């Protein structure tokens, strides 16, 4: 048997319909190869599960359920799951091929990442966990080897659910919460504990606890003091809460912990923290990728397949990924170039004794008016764009949407989007089209028509909130209403009193957190069109964040009501 053919089969078989290219490495859960889909010619990663997992019927039964949920999960911080293939000869996972390096390799090659990169990495992990947890998917094996950093500095989770519950502590002892050592199953808060442990390692270069044996490590997780003094002061509370011995003392959800990260990062490093951190992660990933690493030789494999096609789920998602082309990602992952310098702390809120809305300062008014005029003219010439939106924080519920819009003279912009919310009733990703005052929500093969008047709680209302929060006209209105505005490094930062807001979504969020003003950071492209905007509403422990990224201005066609 030739060397090429030997690599084209793993434990005696290969997933039908794919041609192996090269080995990508092995881990506790199995061997990963780079492969090409014979139908679409798309590169994918295939993980062939270890014999131990294939022989564990309890694990396989649980993972079949996990696989169905993963196939419906789409998030910029989670590696796309395409298929789970089982045959009498073996089992394998077909997933997205991510061009990047793992945090394990980055830490081994570069050592501590610095606080900004560590915060950006933690934010990416938590965003991915939040997306999974909303769909009842506990990761169970959060550790540096399962966090991939791509070329844009995104931290992306892989290997959801690939550790049997009974061995969760032993499979990742440096990151295992105390209750896992006591035999409890993985949970939301054990995932958060592991994320905090990785955060600590990024800050210090080592995990929070160490010992010469697993029993010693178990005792350290249960009893040793949390080494908060080893991390920067502003980040100690994140470590203390994330690594709390008592699960009840940790954040309740990944979204809660993400909000705490946002608060601590902004307080310590300014609004630019995420962009600067992701820029540093990108740099570290690039340096690590250039460092020497043994690379298996490229192989040439025969076409045929010795295994009969298995019964398997549809590959439509993989094909759809090819058709979709480039996916726009944004929201909490706003691109690294959004901020070029450290942001200043927001100005204090206006005194309650003041009456009415403060007038723009002398320095703010000319800049705001000029910028608003420039943007208004630019959007009039290119009245459509694609967008990605994410809402996170304490109040109003999390939300994510992606789609496109077209501005309509004299009327509300028309939108087509995929939208999901943070509650169980809204967690399924659903298509919605907004035209005028009507929302059309896809239910199976049919579209349901609902009025946007009078609010509501369903998908139609959520899509209406997205439109209100992302409309380009509202960005112009924010600029015109700014009471302070400054520009540095291509980023415009300003404050706006709530009483002057033109967005119903922002007004509603501000009311929920009892804020009197909002702050924002805005980046324009070369044509003067919005590229990204991040809006902060509230102060202290009650803060809501709205992040929007825009692209493809002027390239979106008409948007009509579905039939």
TrEMBL record:
PROSITE patterns linked to this entry: PROTEIN_KINASE_ATP, PROTEIN_KINASE_DOM
InterPro entries: Kinase-like_dom_sf, Prot_kinase_dom, Protein_kinase_ATP_BS
Positions annotated to bind ATP: 47
Composition skew (Low complexity), residue ranges: 352-372
Swiss-Prot/TrEMBL keywords: ATP-binding, Kinase, Nucleotide-binding, Serine/threonine-protein kinase, Transferase
Keyword ATP-binding belongs to the record: yes
Protein's name in the database: non-specific serine/threonine protein kinase
